[in-house]
Amino acid sequence: MSDLMRNMVKSQKEGKPVGVPSYCTANELVLEALLIQAKKKDVDILIEATANQVNQFGGYTGMLPADFRDVVYKIAERVGYPKERIVLAGDHLGPLTWVNEPEESAMAKAETLVKLFVEAGYKKIHLDTSMRLADDDPNAPLTDETVARRGARLYQACEDSYQELLKKNPDEKRPVFIIGSEVPIPGGAKEQEDSISVTKPEAVEATLAEYKKQFAGLSDPKAMENVIAIVVQPDVEFGDDEVFPYNREKAAELSKRIREMDGIVMEGHSTDYQPPECLKQMVEDGVGILKVGPALTFALRDGLFALSHIEERLLPGEKRAGFPELLEKKMQEDPSKWKKYYQGTEEEIAVKRRFSLSDRCRYYLADEELKACIEKLLENLDSVHVPTGLLYQYLPVQYAKVRDQKLELKAKALLFDVIEEAADDYNYAAGYIERR
Q1: What is the CA radius of gyration of the chain?
Q2: In sequence order, which residues have a C-beta less than 8 Å from that of residue 339 and are 6 or more positions away?
Q3: Which of 117, 174, 242, 246 is deepest in the core (most CB within 10 A)?
Q4: 263: Cβ contacts below 8 Å, ≥ 6 apart
């Protein structure tokens, strides 16, 4: 089993600009593309699921943690990538989906949640207890003591599950833990750049001190040594139509303080769409974990739309898959996954449904009819000759690779390469590749 995370922290503390991309997606096409890419580059890979996506009640994917693990492993087996090189991670694990319940019931469910993740072999666990519960004062922020006390309770649940795993396999690796949750609203939601506030170093120190205090009473006397990162806001964000690039000057004091801490790096969320050089700077400045999600499914949608444009030129209407039209139909039939996120005129919202960087499209791509439509699109394009000029028009980066005999002129290969191009920004930042 890979020790990717601890090795990264060790390298960071030795002054090496080494990072780990954290790919947070449940889309099977994206997962397949990422695993193929990891195999080609001969690197380990971190794949993450959130408490919203996967939990004991199925989440919005309908999967338990073990189900998601099995999906990832099945894809890995199909593409010939060793599952031992996959690090599975659980993100925002805590009472996130039960905030309308009082502490005792919400935390009991959160304990079950984290236990299932550990039992299923997930080795990176983000303990997130930052949200108010039903019996918390709605007019007061949660104290560090409350957040850390609840976090310690979840750590103990994880430790109990880990001890059970050891009985079956004495060589079972212990999970690493991430604490903190000073993150942007999931999916990108800032309207003004000045609303971004870099985490204060004093806040990091206070959080760590309180966790150390609360962890002191746990059954594992070395519990804090297994905490390898804290989630911070390093000054990155994106919205419907804008990206706020990382400004290392704003984060300089935070970066300096983190580098002085033993065994702790930063985890950055909502790093989607950052320029590759900004991602590289983040890793250099101590953001050892770069979490990305919507940008990957946005790339998938981008590739599918480009292939659909080619299909329109080459096949008569009755034979086309019509992916963009079916996606729009599905989104209109069930607006619950995008309606509250998009504002503007009817015309502006219509554009956002397809092209917003928030990528609410991703919640529809697991629909069976849409999955069949995608398969038909790929089959249609493989049944005809795609002229070079047409490929250049809609997929110029992939055209160059096909021209140079670095990429096969097959629909799925073209699609996966669009996804891999997006992921390569993170491979570059992490130090896996030199170009960007």
Answers
A1: 22
A2: none
A3: 117
A4: 9, 13, 225, 227, 228
| Alpha carbon distance 144, 213 (integer Å) | 11
Cα 298 from Cα 321, distance rounded (Å): 20
Of 357, 139, 341, 158, whose CA–CA distance to 244 is shortest?
357
Question: CA angle at residue 142 from 136 to 148, to 5 degrees?
Answer: 110
Q: Which tokens sit at 311?
A: 């299909």
Instruction: Express each pLDDT in 347-396 by its tens digit.
Output: 999 999 999 999 999 999 999 999 999 999 999 999 999 999 999 999 99
CA angle 139, 144, 150 (to 5 degrees): 95
Reported as a pLDDT band with limits 50, 70 and 90, residue 193 is very low
Protein fold of 4-292 = TIM Barrel (3.20.20)
Residue recorded with tokens 């003591």:
145
Strand partners, 24: 48
CATH fit for domain 298-418, picks 3.40.309.10, 1.10.400.20, 3.40.50.1820, 1.10.540.10: 1.10.400.20
CB 87 within 8 Å of CB 46? yes
C-alpha dihedral, 139 to 145 to 148 to 153, nearest 10°? -100
pLDDT of 414-435, one tens digit each? 999 999 999 999 999 999 998 7
Q: Which residues contact 89 (CB under 8 A, 6 or more apart)?
A: 22, 46, 47, 48, 49, 122, 123, 124, 125, 126
Q: Do domains 4-292 and 298-418 have the same CATH topology?
A: no
Ramachandran bin of 232, using left for φ above 0, alpha for ψ from -120 to 50, beta for the remaining angles: beta
Residue pair 286/19 in contact (Cβ under 8 Å)? The answer is: no
Contact 356, 241 (CB under 8 A): yes
- For residues 299 and 278, give the distance between their C-alpha atoms in angstroms, rounded to a whole number: 19
C-alpha 204/C-alpha 177 separation (Å) is 16
Rounded Cα distance, 262 and 50, in Å = 27
Q: Cα separations (Å) of 179 from 105, 148, 323?
A: 22, 9, 40
Alpha helices in 174-251 (DSSP H): 201-215
Classify strands 20-24 and 287-292 as parallel, antiparallel or unpaired: parallel
Domain ranges of the chain: 4-292, 298-418
Count CA within 13 A, CB hemisphere, residue 25. Answer: 30
Matching residue, tokens 């409350």: 146
Residue with tokens 């408490």: 51
